[in-house]
Design brief:
- With about 240 residues, the protein is mainly β.
- The chain has two domains: about 5-170, no CATH class; about 180-240, no CATH class.
- The chain is about 15% helix and about 35% strand.
- It has three helices and 16 strands.
- A six-stranded antiparallel sheet has the order 14-13-12-11-16-15, with no helix packed on it. Strands 4-3-7-8 form a four-stranded antiparallel sheet, with helices on one face. Strands 5-6-9-10 form a four-stranded antiparallel sheet.
- The structure holds zinc ion.
- Zinc ion binds near residues 189, 192 and 235.
Amino acid sequence: MATITVARHDLSISARETITEALRRFDTQQGNAWSDLMRALACQERAVFITGPDRFLRPSDVPLYTAPPVDVLEMPWRGRAHEAVTCLIGAGYLPGEPAMLRRNDAHDTYLDTGRFFEAATVLKPFKAAFVAYEGTRTLIEEIVLRAGTYVIASTGLVRRTIHGIGYTKVYPVTLPGEGVSLAQAECRACSRRWWAKDGSWWFRPEHARDAPWSYAAAEDHRDGTVACPVPSCSGRVGFRIV
Ligand SMILES: [Zn+2]
């Protein structure tokens, strides 16, 4: 379970830890192939060529100042991710619309910062060759992007940080990371329960006979719990975010 912070001005769950949990059912090893591709595309010392997975690319196929063979796709040099995606759509490796699924959990949740999931579907496998020209030498490094879905998870509100990329051979996928918009509070002594949702601090009781309360008025924050809001109860209320 991801860490929940219970403090005077903070009731939140670690976005980063929820990402680690959400990517557990994905292959992050293969997911790295996608980040290697994106990094190479942004790198100014390298040219990136795309071919079928079984095509063997020799240095003589891609000499400097020469257009590549027809079965080799040259990616935009120092291209941005969306330009690369457009290029791959054109070559039929990615689906046209939508090429990327996106989910934005920056609002109405209990996350401690913005969280984003993006998924790119690769329809047919391809090889990405990263080519560096050093004097007369042409250096080639290759990776294979398997068909399937690559899920890119990042956090941040102003500046985003990618925390992980997961791969699964199925597509389309439902974006992971559900369960951060409902907070359950439960008193260990009187067993009363309350629920709040969409990032709200207003806790409604499970039973009509009990009173609602606001987390803003909670007291004695300690060890992930607060004092039970019921005046006659001296118990502690713990939280679960689901
Ligand atoms: Zn209680």
